[in-house]
Design a protein that fits this description.
Blueprint: H1 6-37, E1 43-47, E2 50-56, H2 62-65, E3 70-74, E4 77-79, E5 81-83, E6 89-91, H3 102-113
Antiparallel strand pairs: 1-2, 2-3, 3-4, 5-6
Length: 124
């Protein structure tokens, strides 16, 4: 059995460190890419007395482009949502509070509205 030298030990340690670094850099990107392409599930529920709905939609019009083909409604009024690069979601009502799903964005909007009606977002 060959004797382990300092050079071999350092080479092996460097190779292990490089492999571990490469794996940690690749794994988050791969999971984020997978998450971005997966469509969120549809939902239809009453949350704090308000009906919230979400479903995949066609890509027609500017107000759907940022939502990645997903529409969210609060009491029948469309809530403008946008998917961030990291897979989180924001809405026009809670723009600075990213959440993991469109359902969570609808719930956050209801919380923020505190009973006030959601007004339609003007499309350009």
């Amino acid at each position: 059995m060959p004797e382990i030298t300092r050079r071999r030990a350092l080479t092996a340690a460097a190779a292990l460190a490089a492999t571990a670094s490469a794996a940690s850099l690749v794994a988050p990107g791969a999971s984020a890419a997978d998450h971005q392409h997966g469509a969120p599930a549809s939902f239809d529920e009453v949350y704090k007395g308000r009906r919230i709905q979400g479903r995949p939609s066609s890509m027609g019009g500017h107000h759907h482009e940022h939502g990645g083909g997903y529409s969210v409604f609060v009491d029948g009024v469309e809530l403008h949502v946008m998917r961030n690069a990291d897979g989180s979601w924001i809405s026009v009502v809670s723009h600075y509070d990213p959440v993991p799903t469109p359902r969570a964005a609808a719930r956050a909007a209801v919380d923020e509205l505190q009973g006030a009606p959601l007004l339609p977002f003007p499309a350009n």
